[in-house]
Amino acid sequence: MPTFFEAKQLVTPGELLAEGDYQAGENAYVEAGKIYASRIGLADLENKKVNVVALRAFYVPKVGDIVIGAVTEVGFNGWTIDIKAPYSAMLRASDVLSRPFKPQNDELSQVLDTGDLIVAKVASYDRAHDPQLTVGEPGLGKITRGQIMRVTPTKIPRVIGRKGSMISMIKQETGCQIILGLNGVILVTGKTPEDEELAMAAIKKIEDESHTTGLTDRITQLLKEEKAKREANKQ
Amino acid sequence: MSEKHEKLIDKKGIRLDGRKADELRPLKLEVGVLPNADGSAYIEHGKNKILVGVFGPREVHPKHLSRPDRMVLKCRYHMAPFSVPERKSPAPSRREVELGKVIKESLEPALFPELYPRTGIDVYVEVLQADGGTRCASITAAALAIADSGIPMRDLVVACAAGKVEDTVVLDLYDAEDKLGAADVPVAYMPNLNAVTLLQMDGILTPDEFEKAVNMAMEGCKKIYAMQKEALKTKYMTVKEETKEEVEE
Question: What is the pTM of this model?
Answer without folding.
Answer: 0.90
